[in-house]
Amino acid sequence: MKNTQRRAAILEQVIAAGGPVSAEEIFERLQGRFPTLALSTVYRNLEKLAEDGLVEKEASPEGVFLYCGREEHGHYLICTQCHQRVRLLECPLSEVESKLEKQTGFLIDRHHLTIYGKCPKCRLHKK
Ligand SMILES: [Zn+2]
Ligand SMILES: [Zn+2]
Predict the structure, then answer these.
(1) Looking at the domain 1-72, which fold is it?
(2) What is this structure's pTM?
(3) Which residues have their alpha-adjacent CB atom under 5 A from ion ligand 1?
C-alpha cells in the first residue's frame, strides 16, 4: 500500500468519526481494510496530518492525543471510560467569543472545546 493511500484513508477516518478520535480508534477502524497497517504508522500519519494543518490535535485529560477534522466546528462531551461521544447541539462559546473580541480586539477564527466526564452508564457501573 502506498503512503499517500494510507494517509488519505486515515484522514478519511478522522473526518468520518465526526469528532475527536484517538490513534487506536482509527487503527481499529482501518484494520479490516488494511490488515498490514501498524499502529505506529497511524500515529506517524496523524502527527503529519496535524503538522500539515489537516487535522486538529488535542490531549485528553489522560494524556491521550485525540484528532479531529479541521473543517468541522462542533463540540463534544466524551466519556473518559467508554469513550462515548455526545455532540453538543450548539456552540457554547459564541457569546464568549464576541465578548473577547470586544475586550481584546482579536478577530477569533477558531477554538477548541471538548468536555470530559463519565456518561450515565459508566456512572452507574462504577468499577
Ligand atoms: Zn461511559
Ligand atoms: Zn464552538
Answers:
(1) Arc Repressor Mutant, subunit A (1.10.10)
(2) 0.65
(3) 79, 81-82, 84, 119, 122
